[in-house]
Amino acid sequence: MEKITSVKNQRIKDWKKLSTRKGRNKANQYIIEGFHLVEEAVKAKVLIDYILIKEDLISIEWLTDLKVERIELSSEVAEELSGTQATQGIFAVLPISEHSKPQIANKPYLFLDAVQDPGNVGTLIRSADAAGFGGVVLGDGSADLFNPKTLRSAQGSHFHLKVYQENLTSWIKRFQADSKLVYGTALDERAVSYIGEKPQTCFALIVGNEGSGVSSELLKETDKNLYIPIKGQAESLNVAIAASILMFSLYQ
């Protein structure tokens, strides 16, 4: 088994670049860190290029049975590669692969319009997974799926459902062409309270940017726009909280 002990090793330099979108696009790979994420990848049986493991963890039983190339790291190298203050000392390098678009969606999908915060995007993916949704589409201006903070917030849910990074307009048309409702979220004159809205088996729900919400152009294309009545003094809800309420309410 190869062991890397120098932070100047070229492979470590290349893997460290995977923390940037430019580096990921060039290598067509991304990196995950921590026991939970690596275990979720293993359970999902996704393709893993390498598992990188700190020297004092190399004998962990469930890792020794994997048919994946393992590389041992010194403690110094593991800390250099880590994106956290206290690394658990385990990483996996995975290829970036694209999902094929479903011919006919049979579960709800969550559409994100320019949701910029990686933590929000990851939480939204995790909530969509928990709510039983079939997929998430990250529209233009949204944080990158493979951003380390997005991945940490998603907690492995991107292994359980399909996530796309594409323009939302074509997806809206796909759902409507298949007679599936597309809900927007807004406070415009068309918007109605989500309370009492009849649950659907398949639909699309669009949530928008943390500051400006769903764009007016997309709201013109929706079948119905929903809002959540606020009883207290808060001006608004965090986008991930609002979306979670709507997803669990609309899909039962």
From TrEMBL:
A Gene Ontology cellular-component term: cytoplasm
Coiled-coil annotated residue ranges, if any: none
A molecular function GO annotation: RNA binding
Pfam families cross-referenced by the UniProt entry: MRM3-like_sub_bind, SpoU_methylase
Domain of life: Bacteria
GO biological process, one term: methylation
Keywords per UniProt: Methyltransferase, Transferase
Domain spans labelled RNA 2-O ribose methyltransferase substrate binding: 31-100
PANTHER family named in the record: RRNA METHYLTRANSFERASE 3, RRNA METHYLTRANSFERASE 3, MITOCHONDRIAL
Family: Belongs to the class IV-like SAM-binding methyltransferase superfamily. RNA methyltransferase TrmH family.
Protein name (database record): RNA methyltransferase
